[in-house]
Amino acid sequence: MQAIIDSLFTPIGQDGMVGILLIWSGLKVTLAVTLLATLLGSVLGICTTLMKMSSHWYLRWPANLYVSVIRGTPVVVQLVILYFIVLASLDVDKITAAVIAFGINSGAYISEIIRAGIQAVDKGQMEAARSLGLSRGQAMKEVILPQAVKNILPALGNEFIVLLKETAVIGFIGGVDLMRAGEIIRSRTFEDVVPLFTCAIIYLMLTYSFTLMLSQFEKRLKQSD
Q: Where would I find the ABC transmembrane type-1 domain in this sequence (predicted)?
């Protein structure tokens, strides 16, 4: 990543083009971290949900502790602790550390989203499935989860949008995301308005686009009811 930054600052004739390239590089980092962290968070969320809904206390206890700790501390604190303390002895680059940190953070929220979606399905559905001879696992897979998906997917889309905005703190560990790119340009040009408003507009365009796609997706889900 540092090599990319150094290459962007190599004189190419126009300072404006250097800034555009830096913004573009930061935007790609922001989108990559958001996507990968969402995927990691989804895996962690599913596992945590299964643990929390287990009948065994030794599975529920660590899952509840994980959700409580992650939801009770700011994501920037988790990011800094993970990079400078937990992964300090390992040769992990800043972007990978950011993906892990945001993935762990997102996993706690996705876990609650999935749990709420499952619990929103009427309990009679499980009882009816069990009365037909299905095991608890089969009933969950064949009856409960298909109904819960409609409640889960829109909320997961909202989590993706929230995570996109939260990645603006990657600069705390030296990663060059969209916001950090704007800060670098501002420090070099001593111009505050253009780089900061550019970052704000890009974030606004991204969140508005994803929100619009999410609303269209929700309409299609309602039409299938």
A: 27-214
